[in-house]
Amino acid sequence: MPLSRELLEYLQRLAPSPFRGSVYRHMFGERPPTLENTLGARWNPPGVAAIYLSLERETVIAEGDHALAVQPLRPRIDRWVYSVSVELSDALDLSAADVLERAGIGAAELDGDDQAPCRAVGEAVAWLGYEGLLVPSARAAGTNLVIFTANLKPSAVFEVGEREAVEK
């Protein structure tokens, strides 16, 4: 599906800003927190590598809870939350509802099972070359950070800190 000209123009009018902070990554088993998602998820279509993080610990746990809840048989696997220090030179902040709605994503698209509208936004952000995207979580009252790893500049920082087990 081709990128929407209107969406690209809207995203280009937004001012990217640096992002610096401590965020959280949820992982299952012994998968490393640096592992990219290339299969596709809510904000990245298949083939666009991304790493999903949350600004709040509670949000990242809610995201992990949802990933387990949609499985036909709940796996028994260790769950970990990693703290990660991130520095990006340009991220687009679409976390405000009005900004996200102008990009074509309302509550129905954010919460729905059809990920195509959100993927289109993520694909456009990645195509424009931005390192990251801030978006509201569909699982909790928090914010997620999606990092498009192919766009990371040499100055980008992704330092994995402590990990803690999530209670089963």
What is the topological layout?
Layout: H1 5-13, E1 17-28, E2 50-54, H2 57-69, E3 79-93, H3 97-102, H4 107-111, H5 116-127, E4 132-136, E5 143-148, E6 157-165
Parallel strand pairs: 3-4
Antiparallel strand pairs: 1-3, 2-5, 3-6, 4-5
Short description:
The protein has helices at 5-13, 57-69, 97-102, 107-111, 116-127, and strands at residues 17-28, 50-54, 79-93, 132-136, 143-148, 157-165. The chain is an alpha+beta fold and 168 residues long.
3D structure, described in words:
The chain is an alpha+beta fold and 168 residues long. The protein has one domain. It is built from 5 helices and 6 strands. The protein has helices spanning 5-13, 57-69, 97-102, 107-111, 116-127, and strands spanning 17-28, 50-54, 79-93, 132-136, 143-148, 157-165. Strands 1, 2, 3, 4, 5 and 6 form a 6-stranded mixed β-sheet that branches. A hairpin with a 6-residue loop joins strand 4 (132-136) and strand 5 (143-148). The longest helix is centred in the middle third of the chain and has 13 residues, at 57-69. It is globular, with a radius of gyration of 15 Å.
Largest sheet: 6 strands, mixed
Strand content: 25-35%
Count of DSSP helices?
A: 5
The helix fraction, in percent, is 25-40%
Overall mean confidence score, pLDDT: 95
Distance between the termini: 40 Å
Structural class: alpha+beta
Radius of gyration: 15 Å
- The shape, in one word, is globular
Report the strand count: 6
Helices and strands, in N-to-C order? HEEHEHHHEEE
Structural domains: how many? 1
Low-confidence stretches: none
